């Protein structure tokens, strides 16, 4: 999307005392890591200045690329003593700015820690380093008939460490659950370099479930360096089927009725007309261009099982006046259907700049929220493409705008915020799988009251009393005190220039 | 089992300043609750002196039976101001002493809060009060073809609040997961009376996953008063099948191979010869009395699906020299098979006193741990019956002893501790579904190092800084400081008489 103009989101004011100690900090990093694992040259630092939320950029103070848990521990010990903030980073695919740097922080990138350490079928698990990509776990066990279930669209690039930070989902999570349902243990480095192991592969470890707490904590409790993940046997077969409808409301109601009937297909994905056109132009997947809304429903199992489940789904779809039903006739066709869906964000990026929302709503509210989303976007004079995990109620309106038009960009952000508030007001929440990051941080007060947020902050502080880890994310800057990372709180007079990083 | 002799487990020393204020505390409870909701008469208090871990007993200071979240909040506000410890209680079926009182604590019993508030099929959830029994949720939605999945053997009596406290499992959790996988939200009263709502029914709420943390926290973070739980559609059919083996090792290896093949039946339950005899005598379920070990494997789905899965399982069982295969031929037979299994603890109680262990081990270690368990029990001159959730690796050796023989009782406790240490050393953990409670508290140091425990305590203190909730449970008494509930720490000189409550 190229450079963008920083508008409404504030960053924490960098701590000048840390900036002044840059050389000292870098040399202390070099004292615990090999030379090539410490990046401090501004040109090289550019590679880390943003993540998938590319509208915002900051150059970090330095980047380290450790190769082991021991090296990560040594880095944290060195930095904690100097009270330097740390931003953990996987592949940098976060869509909510979860890995965006701050100028006074060191980025700890886990991409060199990408080994699969152990595959254990009797115990249905794999032990991996945090920098391994999501897809490479499934690839490593595919020949033996297994896979790792959560499948974010970015699975070719994104790391399991990033998935854990954001509790990532994916198209097939309707049946198999999100990351937290498939995570059995982590090794994590605390702010002072202490190494802690949570979970040993059991479903219910004794004592407090700190593992579940770490999953989705957006890199704020510690640095996850290794993970134990659940392996699942591949089904006998799987088949995506396309259902075209005359309106988004009919498609939305059909989804609610499928789930209300107790049917849980592997996936129910939704696309509106705009998304269908964009994805079909890219993938030539055979999507029905005349439909106002499309559902991709995937069934799996033996031929008989798939036919049985599909029969029940078709019956429900007919009650909602389905116009087109198209079963994939080959593995190639099936792959194309998924290629179109999984490339939706990339394909949209080819035709326009966009911001991607991630609100989740109760299924009973799906049709209503879809309609209201259309109204909101229209009110701002913008267009949106809707492509999302309908079975989970996890919506992804892509609001299209032109990055070179600052007025449109502001309107896109405002429309996005209105849509997220709509999701919360409909009984849903701000994020289904992308996380809060920096993008949705200031909307947290719409979802949670002070008691809720204070409780979360108290738990966060029980891991990281100095707010070393990723301090500018998740929690609103407003209302932060000395104890919760507010010592360098944003100040309109002193915050970084709003024109920074326009390039 | 009648009264028992308190032996090795220490209780926290009651705080004399609280005991001295008993009348004042009771009258402050009466000021916020209707008269009949406050129990302070010692005779009536007897009903609450223990739970499913009946060997230990303490009379609480008082019991309250609130009828609403507001009443619970008023109670907590009153007690927090007076710094009186609180023990939350559901049906009192805990097998690890999770609900056992302490003399200076008020029990908050949730059994009057047993309403099902809302059933919502499109969103696959039910909203219930915490005192509702596990089974009554399934009963309420059964006619519509749904059920609530976790099914502890005590499901007729145990409450959903207790299930949440212990992250309870059950025979069918192999496929459907334990409580944490089926819990979507709670309403919880904090120590000072503040009411907090966690989760709104989504899989991944924004911010820290405090809901996952609360599940399994054994009543130490707050008082859960309402819950939102996942509803699941009943399968087309279900069939339990009995597999008899010539040795426990063969049965254990068979389980590991079924799972390693990627097959996940709904349930794989294990019984050894001792358990088979006890359960068959009670239920007349048609268990093979000549088998050394029995697996109850339940398959579900359409007839074709069940036949397919069963075919693959039979093939694996034959590789382990299965001796008997018996399919249930009717719904009545199927019900009898489950009756035998679910009554195992009760049936055992008819023939002997027992303590029930709950260690969980990696499936690859199942056969080894079974063999070693037998050796340990033999070494102490005792007998054990093994009946457990084999598919999860969640073992339940019932160590048989005579409650009137203090030497045997001590040996049974020692053997139990050795078995739990064995589970941990084999890569497993202390508890699969029953929780730590008071029973396994002092073994926590075998599973966790100081860093692990300190981190858990810090998180606990972020909810309950004064250690008001259930303070004598989960964390070892040794090493407690001022900040973690140790102000009334156990002291060999001053702890309650070891002969207390022998009756």
From TrEMBL, chains A, B:
<keyword id="KW-0285">Flavoprotein</keyword>
<dbReference type="InterPro" id="IPR016164">
    <property type="entry name" value="FAD-linked_Oxase-like_C"/>
</dbReference>
<dbReference type="GO" id="GO:0071949">
    <property type="term" value="F:FAD binding"/>
</dbReference>
<dbReference type="InterPro" id="IPR036318">
    <property type="entry name" value="FAD-bd_PCMH-like_sf"/>
</dbReference>
<dbReference type="InterPro" id="IPR016171">
    <property type="entry name" value="Vanillyl_alc_oxidase_C-sub2"/>
</dbReference>
<feature type="region of interest" description="Disordered">
    <location>
        <begin position="474"/>
        <end position="503"/>
    </location>
</feature>
<protein>
    <submittedName>
        <fullName>FAD-binding oxidoreductase</fullName>
    </submittedName>
</protein>
<feature type="compositionally biased region" description="Basic and acidic residues">
    <location>
        <begin position="479"/>
        <end position="494"/>
    </location>
</feature>
<keyword id="KW-0560">Oxidoreductase</keyword>
<keyword id="KW-0274">FAD</keyword>
<feature type="domain" description="FAD-binding PCMH-type">
    <location>
        <begin position="56"/>
        <end position="234"/>
    </location>
</feature>
<dbReference type="InterPro" id="IPR016169">
    <property type="entry name" value="FAD-bd_PCMH_sub2"/>
</dbReference>
<dbReference type="GO" id="GO:0016491">
    <property type="term" value="F:oxidoreductase activity"/>
</dbReference>
<dbReference type="InterPro" id="IPR016166">
    <property type="entry name" value="FAD-bd_PCMH"/>
</dbReference>
<dbReference type="InterPro" id="IPR006094">
    <property type="entry name" value="Oxid_FAD_bind_N"/>
</dbReference>
<dbReference type="Pfam" id="PF01565">
    <property type="entry name" value="FAD_binding_4"/>
</dbReference>
<dbReference type="InterPro" id="IPR004113">
    <property type="entry name" value="FAD-bd_oxidored_4_C"/>
</dbReference>
<dbReference type="Pfam" id="PF02913">
    <property type="entry name" value="FAD-oxidase_C"/>
</dbReference>
<dbReference type="InterPro" id="IPR051914">
    <property type="entry name" value="FAD-linked_OxidoTrans_Type4"/>
</dbReference>
């Amino acid at each position: 999307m190229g450079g963008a103009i920083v508008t409404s989101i504030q960053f924490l004011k960098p701590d000048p005392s840390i900036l002044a100690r840059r050389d000292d900090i870098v040399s202390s990093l070099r004292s615990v890591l090999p030379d090539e694992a410490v990046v401090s040259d501004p040109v090289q630092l550019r590679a880390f200045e943003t993540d998938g939320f590319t509208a915002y950029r900051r150059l970090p103070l330095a980047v380290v690329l450790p190769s082991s848990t021991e090296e990560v521990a040594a880095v944290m010990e060195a930095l904690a003593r100097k009270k330097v903030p740390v931003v953990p980073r996987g592949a940098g695919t976060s869509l909510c700015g979860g890995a965006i740097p701050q100028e006074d922080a060191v980025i700890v990138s886990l991409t060199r820690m990408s080994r699969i350490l152990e595959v254990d079928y009797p115990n249905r698990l794999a032990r991996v380093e945090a920098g391994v990509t999501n897809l490479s776990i499934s690839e490593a066990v595919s020949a033996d008939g297994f896979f790792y279930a959560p499948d974010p669209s970015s699975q070719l690039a994104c790391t399991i460490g990033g998935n854990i930070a954001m509790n990532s989902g994916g198209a097939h999570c309707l049946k198999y659950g999100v990351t937290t349902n498939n995570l059995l243990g982590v090794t994590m480095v605390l702010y002072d370099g202490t190494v802690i192991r949570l979970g040993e592969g059991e479903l219910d470890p004794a004592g407090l479930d700190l593992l579940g707490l770490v999953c989705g904590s957006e890199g704020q409790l510690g640095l996850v360096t290794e993970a134990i993940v659940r392996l699942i046997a591949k089904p006998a077969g799987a088949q995506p089927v396309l259902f075209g409808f005359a309106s988004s409301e009919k498609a939305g109601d059909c989804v609610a009725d499928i789930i209300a009937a107790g049917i849980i297909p592997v996936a129910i994905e939704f696309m509106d007309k705009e998304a269908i056109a964009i994805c079909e132009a890219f993938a030539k997947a055979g999507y029905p261009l005349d439909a106002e809304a499309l559902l991709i429903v995937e069934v799996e199992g033996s031929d008989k099982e798939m036919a049985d489940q599909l029969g029940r789904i078709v019956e429900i779809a007919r009650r909602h006046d389905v116009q087109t039903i198209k079963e994939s006739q080959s593995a190639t066709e099936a792959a194309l259907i998924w290629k179109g869906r999984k490339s939706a964000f990339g394909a949209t990026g080819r035709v326009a700049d966009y911001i991607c929302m991630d609100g989740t709503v109760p299924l009973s509210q799906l049709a209503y929220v879809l309609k209201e989303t259309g109204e909101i976007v229209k009110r701002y004079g913008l267009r949106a493409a809707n492509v999302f995990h309908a079975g989970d109620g996890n919506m992804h309106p892509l609001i299209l705008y032109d990055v070179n038009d600052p007025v449109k960009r502001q309107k896109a952000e405002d429309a996005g915020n209105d849509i997220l508030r709509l999701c919360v007001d409909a009984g849903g929440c701000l994020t289904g799988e992308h996380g809060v990051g920096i993008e949705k941080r200031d909307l947290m007060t719409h979802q949670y009251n002070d008691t809720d947020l204070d409780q979360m902050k108290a738990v966060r502080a029980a891991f990281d009393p100095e707010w070393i880890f990723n301090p500018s994310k998740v929690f609103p800057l407003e209302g932060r005190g000395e104890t919760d990372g507010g010592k360098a709180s944003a100040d309109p007079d002193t915050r970084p220039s709003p024109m920074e990083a326009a390039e």
